[in-house]
Write a structure and sequence with these properties.
A hairpin with a 2-residue loop joins β5 and β6 (88-99). This protein has a five-stranded mixed sheet, sandwiched between helices. It is built from two helices and eight strands, in the order ββββαβββαβ. 15% of the residues lie in helices and 33% in strands. It has 172 residues and is of the alpha+beta class. The protein has a single domain (15-171), classed as Nucleoside Triphosphate Pyrophosphohydrolase (Alpha-Beta Complex). The longest helix has 13 residues, at 56-68. The protein has helices spanning 56-68, 133-145, and strands at residues 15-22, 28-34, 43-44, 47-49, 72-85, 88-99, 113-120, 152-153. The mean pLDDT is 88.
Length: 172
């Protein structure tokens, strides 16, 4: 069982986490139901903790595969959140991701996940999701539906530096 890492003053040591917002053409988002603390029993994005020696992008791909058995391509950062709950402290970087293989889109709950399934955006209010997640999902959906470049982008395609995209004549 994972126990939070506490410092001398009883505050948890912050950990870096990643998550992936995966949307499909049917106005659905892929969510997982957590079966471990923190947020056990709540619906969330596939994702988890950064491991030593791993880049953020590598962690997002690994966690997504470990929890859903789906492979994703990491696009850009859509949210950064600071969560302190249940004796844990996470700084989470959420990415917009797309499927590597559009024909392989059926998730299989694995790892520390009770369920993994596509949920209609209109039905998000029927699910007990982690704090702030609905806003992240809807903001990402609206951004993508409008074809806008909201978020921080991997402008040099290294997977390490995400910046605000520079405007060009074509994007004005």
């Amino acid at each position: 069982m994972n126990k939070p890492n506490l410092s001398e003053n009883r505050h948890p040591v912050p950990s870096i986490g990643v998550g992936g917002v995966l949307l499909n053409s049917h106005q659905q988002v892929l969510l997982i139901k957590r079966n471990q603390a923190p947020a056990k029993g709540l619906w969330s994005l596939p994702g988890g903790r950064l491991e030593p020696g791993e880049s953020l992008v590598e962690a997002c791909k690994r966690e997504f595969h470990e929890e859903t058995n789906l492979d994703v391509e990491v696009k850009h950062i859509v949210a950064v959140v600071d969560r302190r709950l249940e004796g844990f402290h996470y700084v989470i970087i959420d990415y917009w991701v797309t499927l590597v293989d559009e024909h392989r889109c059926v998730p299989t709950a694995q790892s520390d996940v009770a369920e993994a399934k596509w949920i209609n955006l209109d039905d998000l209010g029927l699910y007990d999701v982690v704090v702030g997640l609905t806003e992240i999902i809807l903001s990402t959906y609206q951004s993508q539906a409008q074809g806008s470049l909201v978020g921080l982008h991997d402008v040099d395609l290294t997977g390490t530096d995400f910046l605000v995209p520079q405007k060009t004549e074509n994007t004005l």
